[in-house]
Amino acid sequence: MDFKALPKIELHAHLSGSIRRETLHEVWVRKKESGETSLEDPLIEMPVGKFDYNLETFFPLFSKYIYALCNDISALTYTTNAVLADFQSDGVVYLELRTTPREIPSAKITKDIYIQTIISCISTFNTLHNMKVNLILSIDRRNDAATAISVIDLALKYRSQGVVGIDLCGDPAVGDISIFQPAFSKAKSEGLKITIHFAEAVQSSTDKELWRLLEYCPDRIGHVIHVPDKVKEEIVRRKLGLELCLSCNVHAKMITGTYGDHHFGWWKETECPIALSTDDVGVFGSTLSNEYALIAEHFGLGRKEICELARSAIDITFADEEEKRRLREIMWV
Ligand code: IMP
Ligand code: ZN
């Protein structure tokens, strides 16, 4: 089966984690030539073929390296356009990209300007290509309550320009997610969609945390790894949309075992719709078409089941009805 040709939906992709290291290298070369960077070459920092980032090495890669390289309008624009082109050439027909609003004082970039820059790339892309893109803004677990509210305000401000929802992400080992109650309550009451990184690591999978996160009424949850039985029952009862990430979980050793041991095998027997997702294709190196190929191989799914799996993401997109209709047409061929 040609998994690239299969029309696919990507619902869980972090912008900065989706930049290929070759793209980062191109940015670095330009900065190096103009004497703008003393950072190491991305191809040395992240050698081709190295995907074994774990939860300890993964988050500093952003805060200490990728953010230091993608630190002006030109780098943000270049890398965002490259990420969009990469998903399109992999056969993605609808993408929900997510990013954490980031200010870059050295380039006089406010969070507002950061979002405007990304939105501008997406709008231009949407007018020129078949793949349609919407944006989700992320709250980082390290944020304080006021910062989280400011993410909601930004999402509301740019809603008419394609911001469709809010995400909660970041290092699962840090933060107290109970402080985000007012932010999620505001998002919900304003009708923004909500997706949450859920039970991603043992530390972030206490009963207290998971039940609290469910109180925020997420429309989708991501990863869904270390879930106690009672919480599983509730997720199934709500038929929540699940964003499951195979290679990321295997490479980062977030699950025990390998591809065939992934909890996809358990959730696929439930009535929860699944959106197979890449998470950070730039870091873990597995495109969405490759994720489908891995699922087919390790869970013995044939063409019909793979097409059904791809289509099961339509109803849990945060897209409007018109876009969902377009996707049903494309994906039923
Ligand atoms: P950005 O939001 O576009 O800057 O993308 C990078 C950010 O996404 C990282 O700094 C993390 O906070 C977040 N992120 C990426 N992958 C994961 C994940 O698997 N779990 C939690 N957070 C993640
Ligand atoms: Zn993620």
UniProtKB/TrEMBL annotation:
GO terms for molecular function: adenosine deaminase activity; metal ion binding. Keywords: Hydrolase, Metal-binding, Nucleotide metabolism, Zinc. Residues 7-329 form the Adenosine deaminase domain. Its cofactor is Zn(2+). One of its GO terms (biological process) is adenosine catabolic process. Monomer. Belongs to the metallo-dependent hydrolases superfamily. Adenosine and AMP deaminases family. This is Adenosine deaminase A. It comes from Hyphodiscus hymeniophilus.
